Amino acid sequence: MKYIHPLKHQKTSVSLPRVSYRRLTAARRIFYRHGLSYSDQEIYRRLFRLFLKNWRGHGRKTNSLRRYNAAGKDYAIHPLYVNQVLYAALWQRALHSGESISRMLDLAIRVYLPRLLEELLSQPSTTRSSDRNMTFWKARYALRVHQHPDFFINYECETQRNQDGNLEYIQKVRIIPKINLSVTQIWQLMHSAA
Hints:
This protein is of the alpha+beta class and 194 residues long. Helix content is 44%, strand content 22%. The protein contains six helices and four strands. It has helices spanning 18-33, 40-54, 84-97, 101-121, 131-142, 183-190; strands at residues 9-17, 75-83, 151-163, 166-177. Strand 3 and strand 4 form a beta hairpin. Helix 1 (18-33) packs parallel to helix 4 (101-121), helix 2 (40-54) packs across helix 3 and helix 4 (101-121) crosses helix 5 (131-142). The protein is globular. The two termini are 19 Å apart.
């Protein structure tokens, strides 16, 4: 099997409803007004991480992916560049639950984009001109029941048996909070996790 690495990127595309992409563009403008310049790809990456962190699915693997591009809706194809570790974790989640990566991103834009705005704009920054806006976003974020500290996502796949017509393997996605990690551990995870 190929070795995946967080510093190498997977180049693919996603299909998003135009309404979702407009929400993303509006959020990017809000970030820019507050001195933060994020590309679509950076916002996608952060949204995917929040999506994986908050997924609480249980049960058996689905039999196939669900249809996403419903007739009558207006979709557009957008490029997607995410690191290989995050992409592998997303594919594991897609195969298990039956949701495409496009559908995951669409849901993340609708559900987690406001949380991402509040979280990033409530942090102190040297580039921002006004602390008044920071207190507004901090107050909004404080109302959230679940506040997640920064974290890493690690993906591992190990083949346990591949002989006599039997293939057994284990896929693991681990969410590792950055709290209580040493500088050395953070450095190591930056080179092995998303």
